[in-house]
Amino acid sequence: MNSAPARHVLILGGTTEARRLAEELAGAPALRVTSSLAGRVAAPRLPVGQVRIGGFGGAEGMARWLREHQVDALIDATHPFADTISSHAARAAADVHVPLLALRRPGWVPGPGDRWHSAGSLAEAARLLPDLGERIFLTTGRMGLATFAHLTRQWFLVRSVDAPEPPVPPRMEVILDRGPFTLEGEAELLRRHRIEVLVTKDSGAHATAPKLTAARAAALPVVIIRRPPAPQGIPVAETPSEAATWLRVTLA
Length: 252
What we know:
The protein is of the alpha/beta class. It is 28% helix and 23% strand.
């Protein structure tokens, strides 16, 4: 007797949680998993299993891909700030009636001694900096540096996986590195570069959280850029295990 065909799951990835979910689903004989990466990083960490790299061409292109490849479930495990692809996923899933789950790690929560300043965007963060300090540790990634390019008095230490492209702040040093980072390493970096302000996005990742602890110990102000709102009506899981459970129930 012929067995039922494997159900096709598409993971919109690029995050640690996406890779862990692909690993967790890899041994399931009833599933066929494809991980999709945007291709913005030159040498991404690839998940196990089948991988596609590149954009879809908007929500319509993603809907077409879902239909042509007979996707049975879609999991949006992209970065919490990848709001464009998340919006496209919500529209595409609704158009082709494919169940969609958002896999989102919890955001950071301030603790005793933290000096956090909330910002709703990179532009708002840039407006806060002149009143906070002149030596800035900027960990928002290489995209969007143009927002800070008009700040000529501040000196920026920029950390990113790949080298940024202009326009960028005129007084800037770049560190090409990728987490996880250690508390000792982050504390030494703040001391060595005489950092006065940390700017970061609320990615919520454990791998990059030590900079917040180091900033707290050094009594530094931290500008935290809030996450964009997630698409309404989409169920959310906080861990790969929760996502795998949702998938089993959904495809049962």
